[in-house]
Design brief:
Largest sheet: 8 strands, antiparallel
Helix content: 25-40%
Shape: globular
Number of strands: 20
Distance between the termini: 59 Å
CATH topology of the largest domain: D-amino Acid Aminotransferase, Chain A, domain 1
Strand order of the largest sheet: 13-12-9-10-11-14-19-17
CATH architecture of the largest domain: 2-Layer Sandwich
Bound molecules: adenosine-5'-diphosphate
Mean pLDDT: 96
Oligomer: single chain
Strand content: 25-35%
Radius of gyration: 21 Å
Length: about 450
């Protein structure tokens, strides 16, 4: 039974989880830092507990403070959202040790998938296609050279503990390799405290296509189709759509079935996402995220399934309320990430939102915790919210997105709203014709013109 759930997160995702709980008749507790006292989640949650100062290290990442808040309020479950402690196996273990339900997979699955080398090995075992590369971490330059030669240049040096696009370097020739390894190791050591790196073939024009899956403790597993997240800047997703304009129905059924079968073999529990690069008709696994993703709403829009609600059901030990046959793909959805950043320089622009108007009408959803008069604190990531649009087909979806972006008002700070307005006018975006480098090229051309 879950009567009261603690939300260990902030911003739009804290609100998203609160909303699912309320629709399920579950009481909510939200933890927050001193900087988030005025947040929408704090206003709406049934209870709130201040767990520390603004710095995440002393609040949202402080496991003991979060567990204490759960104990004091008598919460029987914790939802970690995304980021912060959502993929921290130690935290999942600690939650379980306190007899509190962790809304997520087991600590063991988090641990395996958090180590990219271990994850890749696990995927090979369960029949998921991976990017060719070294068998594990490379321990010498000679070994790295051998692996790179085998998968042919260009290659990518990647940190085993990597995340957020950090700890990655491309080497175009054997001459670049030593330097790339040194730089990737340095960055990985600083960011993750672990400098293990491995070698992978660098795919030159892939798309980023990921498959959403859900599995319960009764042996039910289903995939919820794919999301195309190829429009990225510095390996960070900016604009996502579902389904991918690059796949045929047969292809999406095939990769979905492969992933669902693999997830079943892994004995995985809860929501997860398998990320792939896709090039010339082939899929290559890159990583599995063992949590709710930022872009989960587009999948909800095309399937009608509330992923957060299902996560909570699964955590309670219940069956998911659908089977694979019920996951019918309807129409098309796009999500735009709206950040408090300059639309061209991407310099963060925290501060007070003086005017805020949310678009509405058919097929429009805004997942945001912002309001007029809200001050975006400078301490966290700059996401203001996500504009999600659904249409009967891709064309309707794009037209709807254009009009919704034009209705949206966020005044007082710089935002990436203008970037999205330019994107929906770009011919390649309209045609769905882009790869993971397209956005960087688009931004570069833009700067060159101005
Ligand atoms: P992170 O965990 O840091 O996000 P990922 O492994 O998910 O790292 O990769 C992030 C992004 O880096 C991908 O979406 C893609 O743009 C790029 N990338 C990763 N691996 C490769 C590869 N082998 N070839 C080309 N690009 C890659």
């Amino acid at each position: 039974m879950i009567k009261k759930l603690l939300i260990a997160n902030r911003g739009e995702i804290a609100l998203r989880i609160h909303r699912a709980c309320k629709e399920m008749g579950i009481q909510t507790v939200v933890v927050h830092s001193e900087a988030d006292r005025d947040s929408m989640a704090v206003r709406l949650a049934d209870e709130s507990v201040c767990i520390g100062p603004a710095a995440s290290a002393n609040s949202y990442l402080k496991k003991s403070a979060i567990l204490t808040a759960a104990e004091i309020t008598g919460a029987d479950a914790i939802h970690p959202g995304y980021g912060f402690l959502s993929e921290n196996a130690q935290f999942a273990d600690m939650v379980a040790a306190h007899d509190i339900i962790f809304v997520g997979p087991t600590a063991d699955h988090i641990r395996i998938m958090g180590d990219k080398i271990a994850a890749k090995k696990a995927m090979i075992k369960v029949g998921v296609p991976v990017v060719p590369g070294s068998e594990g971490a490379v321990t010498s330059i000679a070994e790295a050279k051998k692996a790179a030669k085998l998968c042919k240049y260009p290659v990518l040096v990647k940190a085993a503990a990597g995340g957020g696009g950090r700890g990655m370097r491309v080497a175009h020739t054997e001459k670049d390799l030593e330097q790339a390894i040194k730089a990737a190791k340095q960055e990985a050591k600083a960011a993750f405290g672990d400098d293990a790196v491995y070698i992978e073939k660098y795919l030159e024009k892939p798309r980023h296509i990921e498959i959403q899956i859900m599995a319960d403790s009764h042996g039910n597993v289903a995939h919820l189709w794919e999301r195309d997240c190829s429009l990225q800047r510095r390996h960070q997703k900016v604009f996502e759509e579902a389904p991918s304009p690059a796949l045929t129905q047969v292809q999406r059924e095939e990769i979905g079935a492969t992933v669902a079968k693999a997830v079943k073999k892994l004995g995985y529990l809860g929501a997860g996402t398998m990320e792939f690069l896709y090039e010339k008709g082939e899929f290559y696994f890159i990583e599995m995220n063992t949590r709710l993703q930022v872009e989960h709403p587009i999948t909800e829009m095309i399937t009608g399934i509330d992923i957060v609600r299902q996560q909570i059901r699964i955590a309670k030990g219940e069956e998911m309320s659908f089977t694979q046959e019920d996951v019918i793909l309807v129409g098309h959805a796009i999500e735009c990430r709206l950040n408090a950043e300059h639309p061209e320089t991407f310099i963060p622009s925290p501060g007070m939102i003086t005017d805020f108007h949310a678009p509405g009408g058919p097929g429009v959803r805004l997942d945001s915790a912002a309001y007029s008069g809200y001050t975006i604190p400078p301490h966290y990531d700059s996401l203001i919210g996500k504009l999600i649009v659904h249409g009967r087909n891709r064309r309707e979806c794009v037209m709807r997105l254009r009009r919704a972006l034009n209705e949206m008002v966020i005044g007082g700070i710089e935002t990436t709203l203008g970037l999205h307005q330019r994107l929906v006018e770009a011919e390649d975006v309209i045609q769905g014709n882009y790869d993971i480098h397209w956005l960087e090229r688009f931004l570069q051309n833009k700067t060159m013109q101005t």
